[in-house]
Amino acid sequence: MPVAVDTNVLVGRTLKRDQYHEDATEVVGIIDKGEVPVAHVNSYVIAETMNLVGGRAGKGVAVELYDTLVESAGFELQHATKKDFQEADAVHRKYDSLSFVDSVTVAYMRREGIEYLYSFDDDFDAVGSVTRLADAVVPR
Q: Does some domain include residue 132?
């Protein structure tokens, strides 16, 4: 069963001083070990993650993170489509608490039939089609 991964998990795993570092490290650990069949990271999440990590820890750390994601068998980097972008506009207008990147994630998940999202952002809880996982549990 595929899952999606939010920016804050990748940032939390990368930055040791991040408030979610320990939990994010555990989540990424089960993905890397193959306990989760495949973890989708859409292109908007990748861009947001690279910008945040690069701004906080430097471009070199961001590049290392990207290389790690590309090389990991547990992560699948996916391009969000024009259709996702259009659907994200509707999601963004409906849910005041979601950022546009969060809205793209919801649209992508709907298109791919993905229910589960690893995220520490409880704003996703308002979206009925998303089941947010805030720790290293494997969805069944």
A: no
